[in-house]
Specification:
Distance between the termini: 38 Å
CATH architecture: Beta Barrel
Order of helices and strands: EEEHEEEEHE
Largest sheet: 8 strands, mixed
Structural class: mainly beta
CATH topology: Barwin-like endoglucanases
CATH class: Mainly Beta
Number of domains: 1
Number of helices: 2
Oligomer: single chain
């Protein structure tokens, strides 16, 4: 049996852009992607702390060091610039693998930059 468990989480980042007229996805600063072990085109869940909206989309890399968190396409209707969101990725694994798994957890600063 394969179960889905949290692989990584970028906790409480601020939405910097919302681009309705785009194909779709979330743009994430590539520094955050690397630190969270998230790759381009990976499926992620976005949880909006401001309005409770939850959605799934895929990731595209944003420019390093800019702190970009941009919801694109239809997802842009579920956020406002300045909203605080949590970005979660999941992985499929056996229950035995899941017991030993340690997810990557990021807690960026108020400018979406890595701390430390």
């Amino acid at each position: 049996m394969i179960i889905e468990v949290m692989k990584s989480k970028i906790h409480r980042v601020r939405v910097t852009q919302a681009e309705l007229n785009y194909v779709g996805s979330i743009t994430i600063d590539e520094d955050l992607m690397d630190a969270a072990n998230i790759v381009a085109n990976e499926r992620v869940q976005i949880v909006n702390n401001n309005n409770g909206a939850r959605l799934e989309t895929y990731v595209i890399p944003g420019e390093r060091g800019k702190g970009t968190i941009c919801l694109n396409g239809a997802a842009a209707r579920l956020v406002q610039v300045g909203d605080i969101v949590i970005i979660i990725s999941y992985a499929g694994m056996t229950p035995e693998e899941a017991k030993a798994h340690k997810p990557t957890l990021l807690f960026p600063d108020e400018n979406n930059r890595l701390i430390g």
